[in-house]
Amino acid sequence: MVKVNENYLKFPGSYLFSTIAKKVNAYMIENPDKKVIRLGIGDVTMPLSSAIVEALHGAVDEMGAAETFHGYAPDLGYGFLRETIAREDYSSRGCQIEADEIFVSDGAKSDCGNIQEIFDESSIIAVCDPVYPVYVDSNVMAGRTGTYDEVTGKWSKVVYMPCTAENGFVPELPTEAADLIYLCVPNNPTGTTLTRDQLKVWVDYANETGAVILYDAAYEAYIAEDNIPHSIYEIEGAKTCAIEFRSFSKNAGFTGVRLGFTVVPKELVRGGVALHALWARRHGTKFNGAPYIIQKAGEAVYSEAGKAQLKEQVAYYMRNAKVIYDGLKEIGCEVYGGVNAPYIWLKVPKGMTSWEFFDLLLEEASVVGTPGSGFGPSGEGYFRLTAFGTYENTKEAMERLKKMPSLRK
Ligand code: PLP
């Protein structure tokens, strides 16, 4: 009789976003006259920009003619896109990343979930807490995380690096041994970042200890401040200790289009083995290339028109972020993020739990957010609002929050 992968059975009962959906559906059934505004989503809402739509149309036409038809794409990505990325995302920022160190994929989620496969089963993972749940969950599936404690909300073998208001959302170096260190900058859900100097501490640590940093820069396009690096390779020494993940989802609205890439520098060697060769092998065996049409759309992201249009999209969302940030401040909340990221992270007022605040917001304002505890134990007592809605809805949501009887000072 076949045996299932029992690691899957270790997950705690309910999944954050399905619990939210259930609560919102029940509320809408009970309150059919209320207009619910969703500020919980991490999905974009603006349509693709015209430069991208044109590139998609052009590529579809090519696929319809024998002379320009494309079959399987190269496993690791088309040269035209890898070279464009190397030039626009890296050379332009003074990082020496070669086109063949860039692996094009269908998005950052797959890559940050799959990367753990090239490391030994015994590797200890360290994660910022709270953070994007994929890092821990993919390691749960692989059997690296030990057992789950319902009371603490922690896995026994995971090293948690709390990021809270108390430490300015800057993780401290682990005191226990850690092999794989996941860093997400700007961070989902806190919207906070690390400066060049703060990141240098991690690069030096990884080079000294032989750890590998798995650096998720999916929200890089939202960085506004000069002292925040857009890539970990801006930091000296990063090429010998870090893998970087990027996405086209949030900078270009590709959440439904699907495109991303991972950078594995050739100099990154552990146990005498180049990780580049392992990831190339893994990618080549299990992934058959992102579609030509989509890679052409990705190339258009870097065209002059594409860059200008996407800068406007990011600015639109960041205007929402400011509306949320300022609105929350006005009602006396403790607020973080929202400056270099489309996420606003607030301290839940009046000692409520994250879920109590979720219920209150839904009940009194018909606004949906995301309870911080869903992103890790240190997220308890916090709440995430996102800037990915429309400006009108965002403004209306904040007006409603300002009127909430329970939030009045
Ligand atoms: N990384 C982080 C930190 C995210 O928040 C998300 C999506 O919300 C992703 C990766 C997924 O990116 P993609 O759409 O490219 O799979």
What does the model show?
36% of the residues lie in helices and 15% in strands. Helix 10 packs parallel to helix 12. It has 409 residues and is α/β, with parallel strands linked by helices. The radius of gyration is 22 Å and the shape is globular. It has two domains: 145 residues, Aspartate Aminotransferase, domain 1, CATH 3.90.1150; 252 residues, Type I PLP-dependent aspartate aminotransferase-like (Major domain) (Aspartate Aminotransferase, domain 2, 3-Layer(aba) Sandwich). It is built from twelve helices and 17 strands. Helix 6 links the parallel strand 7 and strand 8. Bound molecules: pyridoxal-5'-phosphate (PLP).
DSSP strand (E) fraction? Answer: 5-15%
CATH arch. level architecture of the largest domain: 3-Layer(aba) Sandwich
Oligomer state equals single chain
The CATH topology of the largest domain: Aspartate Aminotransferase, domain 2
Q: Output the strand order for the largest sheet.
A: 2-10-9-8-7-3-6
Which parts are unreliable, with pLDDT below 50 for 5 consecutive residues or more? none
**Biggest beta sheet attributes:** 7 strands, mixed
CATH hierarchy class name of the largest domain: Alpha Beta
Q: Treating each run of at least 4 consecutive H or I residues as one helix, how many helices?
A: 12
The tally of structural domains comes to: 2
CATH superfamily of the largest domain: Type I PLP-dependent aspartate aminotransferase-like (Major domain)
Mean pLDDT: 96
Pfam family, one: Aminotran_1_2
EC number: 2.6.1.83
Pathway: Amino-acid biosynthesis; L-lysine biosynthesis via DAP pathway; LL-2,6-diaminopimelate from (S)-tetrahydrodipicolinate (aminotransferase route): step 1/1
Cofactor: pyridoxal 5'-phosphate
